[in-house]
Amino acid sequence: MRTDVARSRLRELILGGVYPPGARLTEMEVAASLRMSRTPVREALRALAADGLVRPAGRGVTVVALEEDDLDDAYQVRAALEALTAELAAVRQREGRIAPADLRALRDVAARTAAATAEGRLADAVPLNRRFHRAIAELAGNALALRTLERVWDQIQVSTLRSLAPPARHAHVTAQHDDLLAAITEGRPEEAAAVARAHVLDTRTTTGHEPGPRSEGDRS
């Protein structure tokens, strides 16, 4: 569907910083850029407005960045949801409902994230970090939590993209990822939830830096 294509491409451009916070977009300009008709672009902009990535501005829209208080709120929601998904993933693992191949994939992305972060390869570390957290949410088996997290992650990423910088405490971030992975793999729900929550809140409040936009880290 053309609208879905337009929405996906626009979302990528916004999350990638091509259209940064404050940028004003019009249907005509976006349609020309994407080489699409205005109808799917119009619907895509409406969908992105519903997702909180843009807001109406005259005859177009403006890319939105959360204010500091709203960003704090977003991190609190993210912490609660990631604690929930980590707990659910650990429960499902304890009950034998997660395929070994899925756990291997999670370990693999964790290792790749750690390597990219340690080497300062932000272009690789940012998407890998998000893939790691998304993989855990997928293992939880709760579609609503995953969809809500996607929206929160998007808003945080857009709002913190300008502060992207190498992580100051990459070893600490990697250790938290390892603790989270171990708690899920060994089927310890309460520990998984506690580690996930602390990890997200550290990302917001400490001076270290998780691989990603300052959301993840200027504390990540």
From TrEMBL:
SUPFAM superfamilies: GntR ligand-binding domain-like (SSF48008), Winged helix' DNA-binding domain (SSF46785)
Segments for region (Disordered): 200-220
UniProt feature, compositional bias: Basic and acidic residues: 211-220
Domain of life of the source: Bacteria
Matching InterPro entries: GntR_C (IPR011711), TF_FadR/GntR_C (IPR008920), Tscrpt_reg_HTH_GntR (IPR000524), WH-like_DNA-bd_sf (IPR036388), WH_DNA-bd_sf (IPR036390)
Annotated ranges, domain HTH gntR-type: 1-66
Keywords: DNA-binding, Transcription, Transcription regulation
PANTHER family noted in UniProt: GLUCONATE OPERON TRANSCRIPTIONAL REPRESSOR (PTHR43537:SF24), TRANSCRIPTIONAL REGULATOR, GNTR FAMILY (PTHR43537)
Protein name per Swiss-Prot or TrEMBL: HTH-type transcriptional regulator YdfH
Organism: Nonomuraea coxensis DSM 45129
